[in-house]
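Follow-up to my post from last week.
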Amino acid sequence: MCLAAPAKVISITDNEAVVDYNGVRATARLDTLTEPLAAGDYVLIHTGFAIRRLSPEDGEETLKLFDELAASLDAEPSSDDSQQGS
Amino acid sequence: MSIENDRITPLHGAGGEMMGKLLAEHVLPRLQHAAPGRIDLNAMDDGATIDLPATGELVMTTDSHVVKPIFFPGGDIGTLAAAGTLNDLAVMGARPIAVSLAVIIEEDFPIADIDRIVASFAETLESADAAVICGDTKVMGRGEIDGIAINTTALGIADPAIGDADAQPGDVVLVTGTIGDHGMALLAAREEFHLETELVSDVASVWPMIAEILPLGGIHAMKDPTRGGLAAALNEMARKSGKCFEIDEQSIPLRSEVQGLSDLLGISPLTVANEGKAVVVVSPEVADRVLTTIQAHPLGKDAAIIGTVSETYPERVVLGTEVGGRRFLDMPLGDPVPRIC
Amino acid sequence: MPRPFQLADPKRARQLADAIAILAPPTTFKIVHVCGTHEMAIAQHGLRRMLPDTVEVLEGPGCPVCVTPTADIDAAVQIAEQGAILCTFGDMTRVPGTRLTLEGARSKGCDIRVVLSISEAEKLAHKTDRDVVFFAVGFETTTPMTAAVLLDDPPPNFSVLVSHKKIPEAMGVLLGLPGTNIGAYLAPGHVSTILGLGPYQEHLARFNIPVVVGGFEPLDILYAIALILRQVRDGKGFAENGYPRAVADEGNVAAQALIEMVFQSAEVGWRGIGNIPDSGMVLRSKFERFDARKRFDVKGETGDEKIPGCRCADVLTARAVPADCPLFGTRCTPLSPIGPCMVGTEGACSIWFRYGGRELP
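User reply:
Got it. Predicted complex:
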């Protein structure tokens, strides 16, 4: 139900993309994707269909979210606002 | 019906002229190698002889091979039969001295495929300096057997033989290279999955690598992680020794294609077969030297230390995960299937 | 995992685990997830060992394979026995019907093919004159694909056996059952890629519990758990997006539109739970010609009987963990499964058995 892996888009022809998972190539259909896709993008694929475009920065952004949460708790644990540590 | 045919017929298994011709033209020329005894393969006698060395233990192993597909990325049933048997000897610490080759072939099997399979078999044997000294050929009717089945039995000499049951607390666990290549390559090659990759089976004889580490001593246990993968091999070694194998997930070498296939199929590389690798358990004093010796060999360049042996959870394998968690790595239960969830 | 998305990092994992420990309530708090992939990730990465004792994470009805009713398996087997090529996802092949699994049907000569996608089944239908039927199982992550293929003019010999389910409705029903004591939901990441936050707001808002969408990397899961506990600390209970790189709050509108065009909701049975209104998909009349149940002669068989002692119903409704079932690990193992939770490779019992479950090293 939920297994979906990110792959890199190599090329697009009509409704199908050739994608690469770390050196394994497959094709994925694009009918289930909302946003437009280009070669070089990353895409999340479930059962052979693209469900979400990803950009490489998304990984960095995610790590920032983790760091922000962890940092917000370094200050008073019971505080509501995220306070900067000294 | 013409007797000059490019496919196997029942006559090829009947022990007469046709079988003799098949062997003389398609099999024997490829299997030429220094014989270990006085009566050799060329004599085509009822058996062959072996001059036994004065010391050491005689090790025997047998395997039957029915792999499908017969030809797969990186090898074929011939490579697999030869490597599989030689590797069984190798992980017992045994130098191969003689191999038998028995085949059962389905009627109509292409003789050109026999040529390919025998050539692969011979090439693999050559890499381990091993000789076929006897064999057998049978043919079954169409549909009575699926293509071809191969049985190989091999004899080797070990001094001493090394089992899989003697891991000691404090020992170091190594693998001779990347894990999951064969199983994942075969999954990727399944026509219905429509995947393309350069990943090929790792099928190969590990004897040349093992031969170099045996003189270093301190090797307590070895195993080849074939069906069931690394997980099965580690669990068997843990159960038989009564010890705990503590493995560090991050140090298990994996090719990026194997990781990609694992993500896309939902199958762990630790549960699929390896056909050109060994797990080696050594005393800590020799661990670094064993590692560098294996790494110096072309087949062993990705060798790595993956864990240690302890007494924490007897008979279990514990995996330290890449995020700092811990969990048991248990014996896999059957052939993995791709999952959607 | 491609390099930009390799997020595993022991240092950050430790920081998130520490955050969870700081936020953890003093008494037992139960978080339920509804995704086999979440349970696999938790088990494979050893995450439970990193959580404080008071934070429990359980799998609910998260394995669409496990909750597929026996009747659907029976239909698939009958369709294959009537000569169709039955295409299915791999993890469905070992689920028992009344008489046979699909794997068992294959041993008896039926043409059962494992595919990674419905598009492979449709391609196959172009290459043969025989009937090709796709067993369409899965939650909302998988439903849009079936819709897409049916909208794309498949060949006349192609049809689908629909068994798609809707998970937010089931999540709401669970909250209404006695004894579930669900403190919060860890919502399924890729279902949410399709649905967005809306259905959780619609079906779960009145319960005022945190519902946080989580991804599947180990750090994603720890992060989502921390967000849940932060809501609890702040006395809140709302639908929150903890996986923004893969989930837009509004979801994937193109995929939603595909589902809407082809399917409508219906009451369907969930193995181990029973009927849940509006929790399944059926084809709209425009697409009835692709309904394999109508094209073939599908008859009801005996159906599933309750085995004495089997607690799958409690495990599926997050009222018990696998180790609580008297049959777990003794009479019921992955090699000799009794209930659906042990049969499906992503069922809670199967995962617990294979990864050591409550036994934490």
